[in-house]
Design brief:
Layout (H helix, E strand, L loop, with lengths): L4 H33 L6 H14 L1 H9 L4 H8 L6 H22 L3 H21 L3 H9 L1
Helix pairs in contact: 1-2, 2-3, 2-4, 3-4, 5-6
Length: 144
């Protein structure tokens, strides 16, 4: 226990936030883990979210994600501003288009739900195209 009451109150006030971030991190990592098995469900984005949440709550779990052989380098690249490799972007966009198309065209009967699925898929594609840097382009610009 600390002698300074303001430090004690400060650590108590941070505890709910840490619990919240740890909870969101666990959910993200769980969804990312499922994404390893389920085609069409992204893995890396949920691991990036999980690492970010754990950085605010449980740094040991953040380090665990960063140390994962297949996921860690991608999370580190994203954090350093390198974005995604071109091939990974192409694969992500293809999977979004295929899963959104199959879901909207075959699996869903309600028109409103179809439109939502198509809209979310389109938003994902646009986000990847416009907001996520292509690793090769970033490295090329750094070398110039």
């Amino acid at each position: 226990m600390t002698d300074n009451p303001s430090e004690s109150n400060q650590s108590l006030s941070r505890k709910p936030a840490r619990i919240f971030w740890a909870f969101i991190g666990c959910i993200s990592v769980a969804i990312g883990g499922i994404g390893i098995i389920v085609p069409g469900l992204p893995t890396t984005v949920f691991m990036i979210i999980g690492a970010s949440c754990f950085a605010r709550s449980v740094p040991r779990f953040e380090q665990w994600i960063l140390d994962l052989p297949a996921i860690g380098p991608m999370v580190k690249d994203y954090r350093s501003g390198l974005g995604m490799p071109r091939r990974a972007k192409q694969m992500a966009i293809s999977i979004i288009v295929i899963t959104s198309g199959v879901s909207a065209g075959v699996l869903i009967n309600a028109l409103v739900v179809r439109l939502v699925v198509i809209g979310v898929g389109l938003a994902g594609v646009l986000y990847i195209l416009k907001r996520v840097p292509t690793r090769e382009k970033v490295l090329e610009q750094k070398n110039l």
